[in-house]
Amino acid sequence: MLHKKLQDKLNQRREANALRQLKVPKAECVDFSSNDYLGFSKNPVIFSRASEILKEQNLEWNGAAGSRLLSGNHKLYELTERFIAKIHQVEAALIFNSGYDANVGFFGSVPQRGDVILYDEFIHASIRDGIQMSHAKAYKFKHNDLKDLERLLAKQDEMLKQVQHDACAIYVVTESVFSMDGDSPDLLKLVELCEQFSAQVFIDEAHAIGVFGTGIIDDLGLGNRVSRLVTFGKAMGCHGAAILGFEILKSYLVNFARSLIYTTALPPHSVATILASYQHAASDAKKPNSAFKKMRENIQYFQKELKKQQLEEFFIKSDSAIHCAILPGNARVKQISAALLDAGFDVKAILSPTVPAGQERLRICLHSYNSQSEIQTVLSLLVKSLE
């Protein structure tokens, strides 16, 4: 039995129509909810290639059998990390078991007492949890608001001048694509602004990789001016994550990131699938009818349909695969999501407290395998639901 105060918390969630439950998706529904943007999670070429890699490396194991610092650092890790670093044109990549582990590991170990972390107010929960583990002070800035960030940078810079400036660091963290909004900051201007104040920048690219090629940071040529996270559970269709940066950062994390040190490593099959996904993405991108090209075409078509069906006022502006219609109220947005599901379209309702009260929304995730007919139909059904 749960203690009464824990039962009370569950009851409060239930009364607010916000109780989370685990459900198995309906296989026959059109997928507008998963993060499998390029269809890689069910790609037979990637599946077969992962098995080939295991045989080539003589690593037909079921598990890693220990942490990476003990018995778990099989040779496939080094091969995959070198390949990832080469693709992203950085010195080093360090694989973690998940994006959550990577963010907690970085922010729980890198910022030190006396340092300052400035973070976007809509930053992912894993970064918030990592910040809570840190001894650094942390302050949020308004979402994608560079003027507010500049105000905080100037304030912290002035405060650091009163102490030994070189002994303290300022870290600025944001996402290249926000998971609950689908929008993006002006990353080039953000990096230039941070460099004026000698602040170090960390970018979470979880929802950008695959949708924007190898990521928005690569598109902008900022790879050696920031540290960043890439995850493999979204467009790459598998599991795990990596922090990209300089070799010295990798060495530091191996020594101090607790979420890396004190956990069993990913099994060889997981790492082989990461490598197979990267290899497939590199070869597929060269094809005229690639999954990446289809993904971009669907995003453009969705944007045109929003305008055509007069839905733009409900949606947050987005050039990514994530498109969110703000429909305040847990009960209302759940009802519309259920109606779409009954019609055969899996579109998830995002409820408070996951997002702030009054910002409840439908989250439509686009994929390379969605047809234009499916996109047109789901938006038409949304129009009817709103009426």
TrEMBL record:
Keywords: Pyridoxal phosphate, Transferase. SUPFAM superfamilies: PLP-dependent transferases. Its cofactor is pyridoxal 5'-phosphate. GO terms for molecular function: pyridoxal phosphate binding; transferase activity. Pathway: Lipid metabolism. Residues 28-378 form the Aminotransferase class I/classII large domain. Belongs to the class-II pyridoxal-phosphate-dependent aminotransferase family. BioF subfamily. This is Putative 8-amino-7-oxononanoate synthase. It comes from Leeuwenhoekiella blandensis (strain CECT 7118 / CCUG 51940 / KCTC 22103 / MED217) (Flavobacterium sp. (strain MED217)).
